[in-house]
Design a protein that fits this description.
- With 292 residues, the chain is mostly beta strands.
- The protein has one domain.
- The chain has four helices and 17 strands.
- The strands form two sheets. Strands 3, 4, 6, 7, 9, 10, 12, 15, 16 and 17 form a ten-stranded mixed beta sheet that branches. The chain has a seven-stranded mixed beta sheet with strand order 2-1-5-8-11-13-14, with no helix packed on it.
- β16 and β17 form a beta hairpin.
- The termini are far apart.
- It is found in: Cytoplasm.
- One of its GO terms (molecular function) is nickel cation binding.
- Belongs to the UreD family.
- It comes from Stappia sediminis.
Amino acid sequence: MQQAAIKIAGEQAPEERDTAATAVPALQRAFGEARISFKKRGERSALGELYQAGCCKVRLPRIGNAGPEAVLINTSGGLTDGDRYSVDASWQTSSHATITTQACERIYRARQGNAEVVNTLRVADQAIAHWLPQETILFDGGRLTRQATVHLQGSARFLGLEAFILGRPAMGERVRSGRFSDSWRIERDGELLFIDRISLCGDIEAKLDRPGCGNGARAFATLLYAGPDSEAKCALLRDIHPGSSITFGCTDLDGVVLARFLAPDGQSLRSALRPVLEKLRGGEGLPRVWMT
């Protein structure tokens, strides 16, 4: 007499329970998006439009008579694999505004895949755009892909910065594995002016120890300036002496100034960037939130 196998609704067969026990659980991922624009209102620049979603929040503190200063806040506290974060910012004709971040962005250990950040910046004729986020801290095992595209029109001016710090050396942290790719693309009136990409993977510290790569640096930055006065800005940078512990160089590439900084730690890097940014910003100083 054959016995029929009876499966009670909602009960898992043994092989199904084994599979469920060994499967890697799917983790919740962060998504953040912001769209912001600035416009000229009378003699001053002001916020035009603002949209924010997910973990990306935008605040505009009152900072006196200077142009608007938009502060990006990542409420997720950091980024890891599978997280997506994007900013689309526009400066309308003759406007002047700065975008920065509330704190250093943190890239945490990834199980697989990358955190992805996409920034699209549009600067109209005679507008002045300053993109000055605080440093990105890459922890051991972190993986980041970041792309920035800048569309300039007419005589628009753009100042941009991206700075990296490897872990927190004061706490004994090392970055022995990981990956990051940071790319820039700058166009003016639809014509490509500049394209750049920094990519490191594997034992990042060991690679930066090489004399021809980082010469032992644990913090570094890329500074860009695009404008009709690029030659004058490049000459201004060459007159700055950031300090004996900093490796620094700059060049003017047909309307785009590229400057690189290598430093032994994040504090040294910020100290070197401070006078550079103050001069390039015409005495405006650093974004207010950098001081908090």
